[in-house]
Amino acid sequence: MRTPRSHTALEDLRMPVQAELAAAWTSCMFLYIYVDYFHLYKPGVVDDILAGTVFTFDISPTILTVMLASVAIPALMVMLSMTLPARVNRATNLVVASLYIPYSMYNAAGESWDWAFFYGLSIGLEVLLLAFILRSAWTWPRRTASPATLAASLDSEPLRTPQQA
Question: Could you report the per-residue pLDDT of 4-28, keeping only the tens digit for each?
């Protein structure tokens, strides 16, 4: 006799830390880009850009390079989170996420109070994602058994079909 679907347990596999970090950096990057995009809808912003200024800075190769770097770093962190060795990966994520929190908060500097909710929400979400990255990297699981022991235990574990979950 088959049990109804609503009473079966869902399989909850442990996601690798690298995948968690890459997903969080991807979300952070998309949020960062979309906040900048939606900022263009703020009255006067496009006029300022056409006049050659962004915030209080003149548009120059230097400011454009800084802006590119601020978006390129999270994009690179997606790839680095999936490819770096665990020890270097953990340290890199801890350092970069720690530096991005004050950087994200700086983006609200000088903004008017009538835009406080927009910037508060966007910065709050960015900081939450960065805090998730910090927590994931900080609590990176330690291996307690040797690779040979882990391989032997996997060989002796019976295979389960999705219906057995």
Answer: 566 778 888 889 999 999 999 999 9
